[in-house]
Task: structure prediction
Amino acid sequence: MAEEFDVVVVGAGPAGSAAALVLARAGKSVCLLERGPFPGSKNMYGGVIYPRILDGLIPNWWEEAPVQRWVTRRATMVLTGTQSLTVDYRTEAWGRPPYNGATAYRPDFDAWLAGKAVEAGAVLACETTATGLLGAPGKGGIRGVRTDRPGGEIGARLVIACDGVNSLLAKEAGIYGKADPHHFTLGAKETLALPARVIEERFGLAEHEGADFEIVGCTEGVAGGGFLYTNRETVSVGVVLHLPELAASKKRPEEIIASMKANPVIAPLVAGGELVEYSAHLIPEGGWVMLPGLVADGMLVAGDAAALCLAAGIWLEGVNFAIGSGMAAGETALEALDSGNVSAPGLAGYRKRLEGNFVLADHRKLRRAPHLMLSDRVQHRYPQMICNLTEAMFTVTNPEPKKGILAHTRIEARRAGVRLGQLARDTASALRTYG
Amino acid sequence: MTGPGPMRESFEDRMATVEFRVAPTAHITVDGDSCRGCSTKACVTACPANLFVPTADGGILFNYEQCFECGTCYLVCDTEGAISWSYPEGGHGVVFLRS
Amino acid sequence: MAPTDPGPGPVLVARKWVDRRPTVDLLTGEVSTDPRSSGASEADEAALEWGLRLAGVWGVGVLAVTAGPPDAEAVLRPALAAGAGGAVRIDLTSPPGHLAGGAPSSRAVASALALVARTAGSRMVLCGDLSLDRGSGAVPAFLAGELGAAQGLGLVSLAPDPDRPGHLGAWRRLDGGRREELALAPPWVCSVEGGTARLRRAELAGVLAAGRAPVEVVTAETSGPAPPHPARTGPGRPRTHLLTGPDPTADARHRILALTGALVERTPPLTLTLGPGEGADRILEALRAWGELPGEEFP
Ligand SMILES: Cc1cc2nc3c(=O)[nH]c(=O)nc-3n(C[C@H](O)[C@H](O)[C@H](O)COP(=O)(O)OP(=O)(O)OC[C@H]3O[C@@H](n4cnc5c(N)ncnc54)[C@H](O)[C@@H]3O)c2cc1C
Ligand code: SF4
Ligand code: SF4
Result:
């Protein structure tokens, strides 16, 4: 055994670093394991972090967090090959402390957050992959992890698994059943270099301001969506694709990105951008439905490893959920260590904590969203219908008089193959989900 | 600025923008025999790094070196035992800098 | 009676912190680097592994040293984790007038390294053969000069003599697939090629301890402003010479003969067998005679 710690945290993503920070601050001995050469080196995402969750943990985080731009413009676009409808919101308030969302590169952000845990006293070991658990639930509980280094066993009273979407440790502990591809999407993105001035002109931004575009109907018929975010001197453009549909479509991810970039609405925004990094990563999209058990004897699971990423249509938030659940795991671990009960029942406070804050409250509220968003109608029929409806409304067909919106809706729904009853049901379900 | 329209680069150029610290041993192995009976060949198009190459005899040629370590392949593959999947030795594999 | 042999001291392993994937602006030639893709080159990794092997055989310690900014400690921690007993970072302060972004000269680095070697009582130094960024391989040579040590540069294999600490056989490539075998006794400075040894995977306990281990910092002054990096932007071109054409009044046959140089009197090629010092002098003399050293740019 290389060493004994109070807690070993596996994975220095946002969940792991937040957990390690909470524990190290409270004076516990913490080992933070990361398989990459530095925290964040393995992590890609779309591009916007909502860091308000850090307010309590790192006061004035905005003065030091490695941020690219502050998001002051958020748009949702519905595209068909030839039409587009955009809801575009801008506010200057999001460009001032305490801010709302920020674009950031994960290799910067995750390294910064892990640095905070190290400053607080956590021992960070990079280039070290946890390969398995010491002990097992039931049989005396989990007592540490095995790593791929010589002499690589680390003992700990508690293990916090923050090892990301593939959750190899949670699977080994039996917390997480066999993964179902229907609950995952593949994100693939291009980081394209453009001069800051060009980005600001094209997106109508002031210096330091950023834009966040979510795009529906741009994925060549594969369920999913697209995104476009502005960094200081790059834009991130990519797609999120439902795995079974991607596989069945026989389309390649980078070709779907290319076709989205070629869309006449997107093309002028990304034109001339030079590819500086291509990346891909999975997203757990099941939400509430695939939520695993969150604890085992001697172990807590947080972040993507517990499928706590919120992927509900126009929301794609994972980093804040990872930090929120990592903090809750850290606090629960503190309690359990102090009371001396690290068994699964002793860790039950974890779920209560998550239910008491946004992490599980948002998941429960939006529990129908992933299903609704990936449904055939939302993915394939509604974008066309909504664009046609808008076009019909604004097309002046004199000498014929204008039709009412209901009449247009009836016509366009029929053209798109949507039954009105179904439309009403989906609207009600959307209201229930998001309302 | 060059004119409108997307820039198209070759797939090799695309992958050359990513740093891979190649490990001495493969972290993913594919059992060619299982693949010969597979009709979907789902991995071939879904793998974002394009690492699964179908061979003339219906098998699969796999190279682990430029892998994103994402997990798509084992999730889309329905043949039990065709893919054995893990992470590369610590410190190796993909390194993102601007993602 | 002779004083007791102080022994060869620890093996000093010099490691340079460089960006392994720098980006070069194709228009300006400007090189930008990123600390996160920076680390030790493959040759420096091999040098560390050889150092650890030699030290293991002779039962001596390994001291890892780098010259660079605080971020450069990133190449010392893995050395500590893999088994080095100590680590020193040389903080090279720039004298006034030092060009921003200019790296210290090879000579300045070598003299700082020599200082550390002397302080540590080390008479054995291992380096990678070429650094990735400047790549002239001059540091080990300058260092050997400073220390008055034997040099084995560009080695591919080392074989320690288990009975005589500090003594080893070493091999390096020569042209035409031949090898040269060297027998070295301390003090020596050796540089090894990349890929000649794969750095061992550090034990977990070593990694955990290395994160907390102290790194000694010494300051040294660079001897003068070094050329910025890259030293030269734009393509390298040979000097131009004015060539006079053949006498235009001569007939065609003579003009062609003059152009080809056939039948013209010239200095015949010369084969000399000289010692290294004399050889160098003779080369300089010839270059000077041909007008290749107008400003005497070389020391
Ligand atoms: C395409 C895409 C777009 C997204 N867009 C957004 C967005 O705009 N905003 C947002 O908030 N979220 C977004 N997300 C979600 C967000 O990225 C995740 O929810 C978040 O990263 C989860 O954090 P985590 O700490 O749980 O896991 P991760 O960030 O995945 O971190 C896990 C860490 O564990 C390490 N690790 C894994 N296994 C081991 C092991 N065995 N041993 C040692 N270390 C290990 C990994 O190297 C990694 O550093 C997006 C995700 C994707 C894929
Ligand atoms: S890896 Fe799986 S999906 Fe791919 S060819 Fe083999 S069996 Fe089929
Ligand atoms: S893990 Fe991802 S990138 Fe690697 S082979 Fe599988 S699908 Fe391809």
Summary: Residues B 30, 34-35, 38, 40-43, 52, 60, 77, 79, 82-83 surround iron/sulfur cluster (ligand 2) (CB under 6 Å).
